[in-house]
Amino acid sequence: MIDLVILCTAAFLAGGLNAIAGGGSFLTFPALVFLNVPIIAANATSAVAVFPGYASSALGFLSELRSFDRRLLIRLVGLSVVGGVSGSLLLLVTPASVFNWIVPWLLLFATILFLLGGRINSWIVKQGKAQSNGWISTLIVSIYGGYFNGGLGIVLLALFSVQGMRDLNLMNGLKNILSFVLSAASVVTFTLAGIVYWYEAGVMMVAATVGGFVGARLARRMPVSMVKAIVVVVGLVMTAVFFVRSIA
């Protein structure tokens, strides 16, 4: 019962955070590790738990996505599939001891990106430098997303800014659809590898969906700055915990 409460609480709060500001994986992943799910399986299960939310988020930007160049969208989706599969396969061949050492650094990287993401995007926009041929960078970001989902949205938004995009609604739509596609590729890979803890994943998916619905309603009432501060604090605390865990 205690495990169920932890899973539901972490996923509910994660769904709310993702709906308001992002950073839900800072809660789902540590919760699974706390419940003694092996660290690599916890990463895979966490990816499954937050995966459905990307689809519903993308639906909110259908008009922008329909206006986007179809050939370019197909290319981006294809790169996301390749990157998602590649990243998840890379995770599968990573020894647990190595991943245990890498995790706190990934959490720290994702937290810093979350904290400075707006400033980074603003700086890129001010530079006014666009890269028309960004398929390599798109593939690299997709591999990162397949390997470790934390901070993926911020990385994708920065990538789109570098590629010359300025329509924030379109960028958010692309961010959500590419996150959904590469996460789907990762989920399929993790499922075939048999490392997903489906009971935990199922419970968290339901709780995260409810949390996302509630979070979307609260988003209009709560200051985003407050929520972002909470996410950053959680990210830093989880980073410290995993640093201690990696050297224990």
TrEMBL record:
<feature type="transmembrane region" description="Helical">
    <location>
        <begin position="139"/>
        <end position="160"/>
    </location>
</feature>
<protein>
    <recommendedName>
        <fullName>Probable membrane transporter protein</fullName>
    </recommendedName>
</protein>
<feature type="transmembrane region" description="Helical">
    <location>
        <begin position="72"/>
        <end position="92"/>
    </location>
</feature>
<feature type="transmembrane region" description="Helical">
    <location>
        <begin position="98"/>
        <end position="118"/>
    </location>
</feature>
<keyword id="KW-1003">Cell membrane</keyword>
<dbReference type="InterPro" id="IPR002781">
    <property type="entry name" value="TM_pro_TauE-like"/>
</dbReference>
<dbReference type="InterPro" id="IPR052017">
    <property type="entry name" value="TSUP"/>
</dbReference>
<comment type="similarity">
    <text>Belongs to the 4-toluene sulfonate uptake permease (TSUP) (TC 2.A.102) family.</text>
</comment>
<keyword id="KW-1133">Transmembrane helix</keyword>
<feature type="transmembrane region" description="Helical">
    <location>
        <begin position="29"/>
        <end position="51"/>
    </location>
</feature>
<feature type="transmembrane region" description="Helical">
    <location>
        <begin position="227"/>
        <end position="247"/>
    </location>
</feature>
<keyword id="KW-0472">Membrane</keyword>
<feature type="transmembrane region" description="Helical">
    <location>
        <begin position="180"/>
        <end position="199"/>
    </location>
</feature>
<keyword id="KW-0812">Transmembrane</keyword>
<keyword id="KW-0813">Transport</keyword>
<dbReference type="Pfam" id="PF01925">
    <property type="entry name" value="TauE"/>
</dbReference>
